Structure formats: C-alpha cells, structure tokens
Amino acid sequence: MVKLLGISGSLRKGSFNTALLRAARGAVQGDVALEAATLHGIPLYDGDDEQQNGTPPAVRELKARILAADGLLLVTPEYNNGVPGVFKNAVDWLSRPTPGVADVFRDRPVAVIGASPGGFGTILAQGHWLPVLRTLGARHWSGGRLMVSRASAVFTADGTLQDEGVRKQLGEFLQDFAAFTATNKPEPR
C-alpha cells in the first residue's frame, strides 16, 4: 500500500486546486490511497510566537499526517506568477523543528501539480517550488508534469472534473508518482 497525502494550497472554498485534489483522490487506483489536507487554521509564521508558544496545533496535526504518508502531493495555485503566500507560509511552519517530531520533508517523495484559470497552468509556481523542495531535502518527482490551464472549462461550477483528457493525464501522473514513492519511501522516523 502506498499512502499519499495531498495538500491544496488554496483556502478558497471554490478553488480549482482543491477541486483538482478531490479529482486526484478519485483517480488513484490499485494499492494507492490519497488523503486530502488543507491549510486552514495555520497562522502566519511568527518566530517570537513560536519561541513563546511552540508549534501551533494545526501545524503539529499536519506534520503528523505528512509523517504517516509515504509521499506528498502539493496542489499549488499560482498567484502573480509565483507560489501563493499561504502555501509557502505553511511549508515554512512545517519545516521548522518541533520537539519530538521528525523532519517531514527530508527524503520524502514530493510531486507538484496545479490548476489555473490562465493559459499557462501553474508552470511558474511549480518552478518556484523546485529550489524550496531542494533546500528541504525532499525527493522531488520530476517524471511528469500536470499543469491544468483554463480550469474554468475543465471543472464544472460545482468543482467536478469534466475534461476526460485531464482525467486521464491525472490518473497516469498519480500512478507514476505512486510507483516512484513505493521505491523511495522515507525511512520510519
């Protein structure tokens, strides 16, 4: 069994990226499980607050979910040609040492996908994640790319994936990422 955790990098209820993550959950097959997580409840990073109060509960909970997974799927929006601040903030919190909790990124298989209403998908945001993932010591899977462009035509108003080509591409992407994860699972910590 390969256990994946997907995180939507958007807080918006009608987010195309949250819809893409829901579609991904329905697209996994065989001996693969994909759980979904959100960034709701994670405060802005503040080193003084961290020193005084420690790691916030929402961050501890997300760290535990990542550690329980074999691989991590980042489902990223693209804001102003880059990584959304709320997503980067969460990763900054997640990368901070927490007493009694292992490093959640080191050697963990990670893949990045995303959806955008524009014509270029999330190509720039995905590119911006690469140096971050390298710095964190993650095992970035670069065997495929999934950048859903013109997402308003790909998803229905209620967020259902309606484009069969994207559905097929998503299924193949997840199958290949799961195979990569199966052979690169992090050591138990």
H and E order? EHEHHEHEHEEHH
- End-to-end distance, in Å? 18 Å
Main CATH class: Alpha Beta
Biggest beta sheet attributes: 6 strands, parallel
Low-confidence spans: pLDDT under 50, at least 5 residues?
none
* Molecular shape: globular
CATH superfamily: Flavodoxin domain
Number of strands: 6
What's this entry about, in short?
The protein is built from seven helices and six strands, in the order E-H-E-H-H-E-H-E-H-E-E-H-H.
Write the layout of secondary structure elements.
Blueprint: E1 2-8, H1 16-27, E2 32-37, H2 47-53, H3 57-68, E3 71-75, H4 85-95, E4 109-115, H5 123-136, E5 139-140, E6 147-148, H6 151-154, H7 164-183
Parallel strand pairs: 1-2, 1-3, 3-4, 4-5, 4-6
State the main characteristics.
single chain, 189 residues, alpha/beta, Rossmann fold, six-stranded parallel β-sheet, 7 helices, 42% helix, 15% strand
Walk me through what this model shows.
The chain has helices at 16-27, 47-53, 57-68, 85-95, 123-136, 151-154, 164-183, and strands at 2-8, 32-37, 71-75, 109-115, 139-140, 147-148. With 189 residues, it is of the alpha/beta class. It has one domain (2-183): Flavodoxin domain (Rossmann fold, 3-Layer(aba) Sandwich), CATH 3.40.50.
